[in-house]
């Protein structure tokens, strides 16, 4: 599974791994601290899916509230990662690393005492800002500590292995913590580790010299973050208010205006977050679409698959063990894919991998009432292998759209796009799940004999709980005097949840298929453009940086 850090591996090289020559590098210590920090961040990305069912039950949260538990972490990563990378270059990576660890740890501590879903979501956004600081500085710190290419490669290999292990172990660790200690424990575990790393970094981590020419694009970050928040909020509120609601329409229009303003500002800013000249290359369009689509489909759907499994009676730990095939297969494919990818054009590899991701989504669908969790196994294996392969190929593709001195901006741009895909995918898929499950629950209730004796507000509450992912657990709230209807209500809840999950998967398949089509066209145009520019009447320096 990919994150902002995986795609920003080259950021350190591009932004310059300068350091204070008088300061000791302490490479082993720096690698240890960075690895611990990244393991924490990856763990918090993965473990939250194990806690969603308990969070929903504790706070009586809607599907929109649960969506924000994930999106509130992803959106700051998308909005401010590039800005913090520039701030780290300018003012020192150690300072920003420590600041990020303080913010991350303090927000984790505050989430242990959260009293409602809104408070938890806001604190997750603060935690995401701290995570963005740590993501932005981790690889530059390694580059400064390991200036020799061979040693740096080994360090980055360790870094990648730590990320992969956190990805694989995240659902299991999260499930174990939630099962035995409650959902707040997934944030509590960050506190002692964060304090220890902060103190150690303050005392022992060497500072790197600032590069004063790198300036932060705060207007760009605010426009990008604001546009994403408005767009995602519109998606999450569309379930409750409807697409014709003035609030939803206003949010969509506002988000569109802010994102358009962001693109316009990038053409005028002195130090833009994104070099829009890259977007003129058709291969960039294809790679960007695949970067967004794989996160918006299989990766986003894994959150709801976890919620569905727990709604069917599995404990968080049992759920985590059943989702292991996705992460394990992704890690395996990520190790093998670079060897195979060298024999294929990058465009073919990316389009093919996205097609297999779509196939994995398709195999997840068609779940029936008599099926069990093994129904999802083929889709998880196929999709996990494709995700791992796509992540590795995407790494290479991200470097082909900019000269070496801008490789950091290019790779971080695709990291940002992946976070955008995750945030939008969580909102869109969750909206479909919530609407379909709620509608099916309401129609199913109407067919239950004697349901008219149940007060309307209780029926509405039941349908809303099913729409929020409670499944047949929503039946537990039925008053004792209506217990004779429990078997029928359980069937209604299970059927509605299954229909919601299948609708969610269907949307993911459509998104995946469309992305494969558009990306394939973009890469085909790119290859044709490259052939024309390699014609004999063209000079070598006219050749573009394209994905071939």
Write a structural description.
The chain is mainly α and 548 residues long. Helices cover 75% and strands 0% of the residues. It has 18 helices and no strands. The protein has helices at residues 4-7, 11-15, 27-59, 63-91, 93-111, 117-145, 149-181, 185-188, 190-204, 218-241, 246-266, 282-311, 316-341, 346-364, 377-397, 407-446, 456-467, 486-533. Helix 4 packs antiparallel against helix 10, helix 12 runs parallel beside helix 16 and helix 16 runs antiparallel to helix 18 (486-533). The chain starts with a helix and ends in a 15-residue tail after the last helix. The model is unreliable at 1-23 and 538-548 (pLDDT under 50).
List the helices and strands and how they pair.
Elements: H1 4-7, H2 11-15, H3 27-59, H4 63-91, H5 93-111, H6 117-145, H7 149-181, H8 185-188, H9 190-204, H10 218-241, H11 246-266, H12 282-311, H13 316-341, H14 346-364, H15 377-397, H16 407-446, H17 456-467, H18 486-533
Helix pairs in contact: 3-4, 3-6, 3-7, 3-9, 3-12, 4-5, 4-6, 4-10, 4-16, 5-6, 5-9, 7-13, 10-11, 10-16, 12-13, 12-14, 12-15, 12-16, 12-18, 13-15, 14-15, 14-18, 16-17, 16-18
